[in-house]
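Section handout, structural biology tutorial.
Before the tutorial, make sure you can parse a SMILES string by hand: atoms, branches in parentheses, ring closures as digits. In the record below the ligand is magnesium ion, and the chain has 633 residues. In the tutorial you will relate the predicted structure tokens back to the input. Do not try to memorize them.
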Amino acid sequence: MGGGFCRGKRKANLVARDMRNGNKQNVPELADWGNYMEAKRLKLLDQFHNSEVKRISNIFEGISIFVNGLTRPPADELKNLMAAHGGEFHMYQSSSTTHLIASNLPNVKIKNLGRVPIVKPSWIVDSIAMGKLLDFKRYLLYNNQSRTQPRLDFTVMQKTTGSKVPVQATSNGIAIPHEQTNMEVPSPRNQDHTEIENKSAIDNKGKGISKTAADPSFLQEFYQNSRLHLISTLCAEYKDLVNKLRETSDGHFPGKDKLIAKKAEGPRAFYPSFASVVMHIDMDCFFVSVALRKRPDLRGKPLAITHARNGRLANENSHRGAEFKLWEHLEPGEKVDIGDRDSMSEIASCSYEARKSGVRNGMFLGQAIKLCPDLKTQPYDFEGYKEVSNILYRTIASYTLDIEAVSCDEMYVDVTKLLKETGLTVEEWATHIRNEIMEATGCPCSTGFGANRLQARLATRKAKPAGQYYLQADDVESYMTDIPLSDLPGVGRVTLSKLSNLGLSTCGDVQMKSLSFIQALLGKKAGQTLKDQARGVDSRPLNFTHERKSISADVNYGIRFKKLEECYTFLQSLSDEVFNRMSAVNMTAKGLTLKLLVRAPEAPVNICWLNMHVAHGIYLYGEHNAGRDGSKV
DNA sequence: ATCCTCCCCTAC
DNA sequence: TAAGGTAGGGGAGGAT
Ligand SMILES: Nc1ccn([C@H]2C[C@H](O)[C@@H](COP(=O)(O)OP(=O)(O)OP(=O)(O)O)O2)c(=O)n1
Ligand SMILES: [Mg+2]
Ligand SMILES: [Mg+2]
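Predicted structure of the complex:
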């Protein structure tokens, strides 16, 4: 990485990775990222850069600063300045801290800070310039009420020489506060395609070539077809919806009120005051169920939702098909295993009939058809998913807002109060709500109940499809022993293989092992969690409100740059995208990471991967696991 | 002791 | 025609 200002700092990264061995290497053409920022350094500071610190004065005697996050000048420089002028410097808060130095602090953090004054870094610089300690009160970052939260400023640069990355992230709101910045307002997300874009789409179609990321409309088109993008987006939306409904609630729940009225006479269930009941609710094979509303003739058949039409072979116009075709032309010695020419179209959701043959969500179509030759497919219906999700959430919200949104087809609900107030038994409530959702959406769902979220979730698994189950406290112990470890949330492919290598396959097996044994295998936290889970214990509360910590955009599909210019064009769209999402939720940020993966030398097609990630708060890193689990990157 | 960076892993 | 996104928990190992 070039550029001193970025160096070693949490600022911006551009990394290329050899996918085969995981080595990191710099990308020379792109490493000039930091030069722009470097040019902005104060001349005053240059003398300390890369040199031994000499004591110049004692004006900061007794002052101990804690630098939080990104500052201008950066922490490096402040450290040198403090040392040169008799002060103490820390990168984190300690008991000796007298001043907190920050250019930009997220609200979350401010709340957590004690009485230490938050001071702009210019206090240090100006004091040195004046040769005496100035009154820090004139440099407070926030003057009590009016906080002007500085922003990460995405300034879109003109593409000129091609020697600069066309996007900068700067955090410069303090020295020159700018409520209204000169940020370019990006065009709306669903804008009409321009003539040029349309033309290029037609050209691509005409040539039978799939669009690549070099195409300016690639990103929007990709998003319109990516089900993973859709469910990620919806997930964030529903978490937000719950937040908003809770904020604006008048405490009035029509669904609940109707239930109370209906139950006015008749026996009421008794609930001990201490017992809380958690409900987990999840749509059955969600995408499939939405499709079946319009295709009742396919009910009862093995069915999968996927982009590909029926067929085992990857279409040669698809990326996978093209990859295979290219591979065929290699010399025998050059060939690496890229698998059969099966369709690598992913199955988003499959019916329970298909599951009987071993088909699973997330499986490639080619593999699934081998397991289940009768498998039918149906296309996606993004609007349908939104409609059903919306009804699901609105329906539950008419009973209670003690909801933790998990995804577009799933949530946890604390129904303790609801059951008490309505006098319904768990069974009565479950039947009622499942019927209501079925009637309103035409789609079946299942519900599970327990004393905590884990128990509720395991109960849903048992209930599926189209069922309900209450895992009662007395039954938990015996219920858990036979539960496969793979059923536990948080136990995925890697964890499962670690466990099964040691002959552990059920919760009962884990119960017999010591805590330290499991922790040595999985790590401290994961080990403790698993030991608890194996007994049905889960102390994590439901989180009804949610604060997003980061925003990121990744594309790991169809990236085949031939020229650096194409890479810049795509970076431009990615940064526009991240910026749009940030402005949409009015989020400010402290930093930015940018990542690039390049193809493994032996990979048959030049595909690379890009990620852009912006975080609000402390952590900011984008990550992807491409290149492992057999994918060809 | 606590934080940071760079990951790995998981869920939907 | 395919569309391998996204957010968060957490660990290893180094810095402070
Ligand atoms: N690898 C995956 C997993 C899920 N989904 C989408 C399609 C699913 O229909 C939806 C909900 O995921 P679930 O895990 O709830 O799975 P289903 O609803 O399909 O089935 P189940 O009845 O097991 O809940 O998310 C996906 O696109 N890709
Ligand atoms: Mg589901
Ligand atoms: Mg689900």
